[in-house]
Design a protein that fits this description.
Layout: H1 5-43, E1 47-54, E2 69-73, E3 76-77, E4 81-82, E5 91-98, H2 113-116, H3 118-121, E6 127-133, E7 137-144, H4 147-155, H5 166-178, E8 185-193, H6 204-212, E9 216-223, H7 225-235, H8 250-258, H9 263-271, E10 275-277, H10 281-295, E11 299-303, E12 311-319, E13 325-328, E14 331-334
Parallel strand pairs: 5-6, 5-8, 8-9, 9-10
Antiparallel strand pairs: 1-11, 1-13, 2-3, 2-12, 4-11, 6-7, 12-14
Helix pairs in contact: 5-6, 7-8
């Protein structure tokens, strides 16, 4: 019996050694399964489609049901679900404000922005962050439910350099919002001029794919430096803004600008958000109040694409009956791999 003891110890050592060797293999297998999980989720993704419905007078229409909507994906009608609890959904919103180029002359018109966000931050669980941008984007205030922090940051906006990198900034904000919990309503409020100046890292095609692949709603409040200068000159309120007298080149710049893509408008339309132009402090405040009111006046439709082709898909939403202005997300990006 005494001679058998070494054999038992040897077997035990072999068992321990084999177990130690097998554990990394199991961890590797588990890691491999985790790496494959996004592919499984991608095939069962649900596309969220926020919808705002207005009558011919611009008033919000409430009380609609899922059956009142027709939603098509690349022309094919889809079965839609209406989230009845969307109104109580917490919000994560980024306020991205251009401070570069001539935005410094627009900052006084935005003076009321801080206090106008109070209705959003007063909702349980809602948070806001502030991003400022010129030729680059800066996270001026990370996500917080503290309204005082957000207001303090917005009240201390400073002029930036001669850039307005809208594409790079939207890409940056989309990444930040993508890190927020999926059960939140993720919103970007973009305050900028209409053209991009100085984006180096983000192409139009890449941003279309990124926005289309997300469930982010973009609301754009845009200004035209040339238009503001003309109106301020007429009001006699421009003083040292841009030019002491009428800018004779402003109409030419406006004509050239109209020939180029309106970046914030295009992004807002893709996501089902809204685009508005402001040229005065009163108009800006009206637009922000509309933004507050419309956030939770939207119907949140969703559908699950069946065997979607990879690439950009076109979404159209309208009512089965009646005449109404339906504002909805116009596209989404499918990452489904072709079989």
């Amino acid at each position: 019996m005494a001679a058998a003891a070494p054999v038992s110890i040897t077997k035990l050592l072999i068992f321990i050694l084999l177990t130690a060797i097998s554990l990394p293999a199991q961890d590797s297998a588990n890691q491999s399964e985790k790496e494959q999980e996004p592919l499984v989720r991608a095939q069962s993704n649900v596309v969220l489609v926020p919808v705002l419905v207005k009558d011919s007078h611009g008033k919000i229409i409430y009380g609609l049901q899922a059956g009142d909507f027709i939603l098509t994906d690349n022309g094919f009608e889809q079965a839609v679900h209406l989230d009845e609890e969307a109104e109580a959904q917490p919000i994560s919103v980024i306020v991205a404000v251009q401070t570069g180029r001539r935005a410094e002359y627009e900052l006084p018109r935005m003076a009321g922005l801080a206090s106008m966000l109070d209705p959003i931050l007063s909702q349980p669980g809602s948070q806001a962050a502030v991003v400022t941008f010129d030729s680059g984007a800066t996270l001026a205030q990370n996500f917080s439910g503290n309204a005082e922090k957000i207001e303090a940051t917005l009240r201390q906006l400073q002029p930036g350099d001669d850039g307005a990198a809208i594409l790079d900034t939207v890409h940056y904000c989309a990444n930040l919002l993508g890190q927020q919990p999926a059960d939140r309503l993720r919103v970007l409020l973009l305050v900028s001029e209409t053209r991009d100046h100085g984006s180096h890292y983000t192409k139009f095609e890449d941003l279309i794919r990124e926005i289309g692949d997300s469930n982010i709603a973009v609301y754009s409040l845009a200004f035209s430096p040339s238009l503001s200068n003309i109106l301020d000159t007429g009001r006699g309120s421009n003083k040292e803004e841009m030019n002491p007298g009428p800018d004779l080149l402003a109409p030419l710049r406006m004509a050239v600008a109209s020939m180029k893509k309106n970046v914030p408008k295009g992004i807002a339309e893709m996501t089902g958000g809204e685009y508005e132009l402001f040229e005065s402090r009163k108009k800006f405040e009206t637009r922000v109040n509309d933004f507050d009111n419309h956030l939770h006046s939207r119907y949140l439709l969703s559908f699950q694409p069946k065997d979607p082709k990879p690439g950009l898909h076109s979404i159209q939403v309208h009512l089965r009956s009646g005449n109404a202005n339906v504002l909805a997300r116009s596209s989404y990006w499918s990452n489904a791999s072709s079989q």
